[in-house]
Amino acid sequence: MSSIMNQWTDELRYAPYSSWTSAHLENLTSIIAQSSWRFKYHIQPQTGLLNDPNGFSYFNNQWHLFYQAFPFGSVHGLKSWAHLTSSDLIHWDYEGIALYPDSEYDSHGVYSGSALPIDNQLCLFYTGNVRDQTWQRFAYQNIAWLNSLGAITKESTPFLPIDPNYSSHFRDPMVFPYQEGLVLLIGASDLNGQGKIVVYFSKDRNVHNFHQLGELTFTDQELGYMVECPNLVFIDGQPVLLFCPQGLSPSVKSYQNIYPNMYTLAETFDLENLSLVQAGPFENLDEGFDVYATQAFNAPDGRALAVSWIGLPEITYPSDVEGWANGLSLVKELTIHNGKLFQYPVSETEMLRQSATTLSNGCHFLSTASFELEVDIPKNEIAFIRLLANETGSKGLLITIDTIHGKITLDRTFAGQPFAEKYGTIRETKIRKNKSVQLTIFVDCSVAEIYVNKGEKTMTGRFFPDKAQQYLHLSKTAKAVFMSWKIRIIRNDGEF
Q: Does residue 174 contact residue 112 with C-beta atoms inside 8 Å?
């Protein structure tokens, strides 16, 4: 195996894309090709780092999805937007880099944002990260246009002025149509270091007519020191706010990860008073390890769709040494049942099913590390599932379903290569006591997405099994159905 770069200075992280050689990318590609942890049906970077999903939208009879990327290594360097398109939310074409950090107002990174079809083009809203000679940060809110032929044009100046009432942590523009106009949400930190969501409005759907209304009210609790990635979607008219309150006090809502990804359900959205009326308590969007920066939008087909970054800032993953990092979740549909938010992979996901086998309790050799597993657990029982385990069951990702005491535990202590242990290796979520439970589990080499009772709860986690971990252990389950999946290939039609 060739070596990869492991000494990353700021100079290297922020070097222009043009300074990187094709030989560097070819070497990186050859190393990555040898990885046993690469996904078969989840989105992942071809090389380097992937983080926030961006610009999730439908335009020109295609689904569009972008993500923040640094193609040259598994570090947070000079960010761009990579671009994917799909006809079915499952099979994706890689279209190359869409937005480069190459202008005055995004010189140090193309940061997160959203997209919306306007006037027969897809309007891309994003934050441009800029640093001066003293390394002071400036954040600019920018626009680019994608036409029906795939050509992208950046506007030469930001579409919003810098607001002196907020720090340089002012980013992630999320735009959605509302009434006859457009609403814009920005995640922010004010001058007192308090997290806020700032609201703008354009009454005529002209993206150059946004004016600031103020700050969104939906709680009397402090929101930590910064709010990232605000998204407001509507499910049967009911507003759902997704957001990432960095530094949120655990007394407001307990969370176990370094940064939380949360949501709140409200009765109505009152634009005039900048309020989510009767907003409920904060809830964790995922009860596992590695979900952050979820982006959601109301699709033209009536569904509320979401996709999450499977990864977290400031975490080092074992795949980093191979020159790649992180992935995206399956596309999920958001629904509300009995006042609860449900998340479940879109129905199109079923087209990946290839064959189904009913499994008994015990040890099973796996011919593939990418599969779907449906497991029924009876009431008044404690069941165990070990995913990608060794033959004895001493290693593997352990799921414990305790229907007696009403809890599910996800344990990656002995799942393979250790990492991020200081943030804990166990996650737990509550379920109803003395009730049967169904789990739908999507395993893909080094990631597991676990859906409880068709999306009532979710638990997602990365884990990095050794090559000998080729078994599945089941104990005290009522029924388990193993489904092999067709391998999805993300076609590469573009180059860096």
A: no
Measure the CA–CA gap between 431 and 446, rounded to whole angstroms.
Answer: 26
Q: Is 444 a catalytic residue?
A: no
Q: How far is CA 364 from CA 114, 360, 466, 471, in A?
A: 44, 9, 17, 5
Residues 6+ apart with CB under 8 A from 72: 17, 20, 24, 25, 28, 47, 48
- Judging by DSSP bridges, how do beta strands 304-310 and 291-298 pair with one another? antiparallel
Question: Which amino acid, residue 89?
Answer: L
Q: Which residue out of 52, 320, 411, 444 is catalytically annotated?
A: 52
- pTM, two decimals, is 0.96
CB contact at 8 A, 395 and 389: yes
What element of type H or E holds 152? strand 152-154
What is the distance between the terminal CA atoms of the chain, rounded to a whole angstrom? Answer: 23
Helical residues (DSSP H) of 227-337, grouped into ranges: none
Cβ–Cβ < 8 Å for 169, 194? no
Domains of the chain: 10-345 (2.115.10.20), 349-485 (2.60.120.560)
Alpha carbon 8 to its chain centroid, in Å, reads: 25
DSSP lists the bridge partners of residue 246 as 226
Tokens of residue 199, six digits:
């609201």
Residue 154: which of 213, 113, 198 has the closest Cα? 113
The span from the CA of 69 to the CA of 351, in Å, is 28
373-423 pLDDT, tens digit per residue, is: 999 999 999 999 999 999 999 999 999 999 999 999 999 999 999 999 999
Chain centre to alpha carbon of residue 186: 18
Are 477 and 385 spatial neighbours (Cβ–Cβ below 8 Å)?
Answer: yes
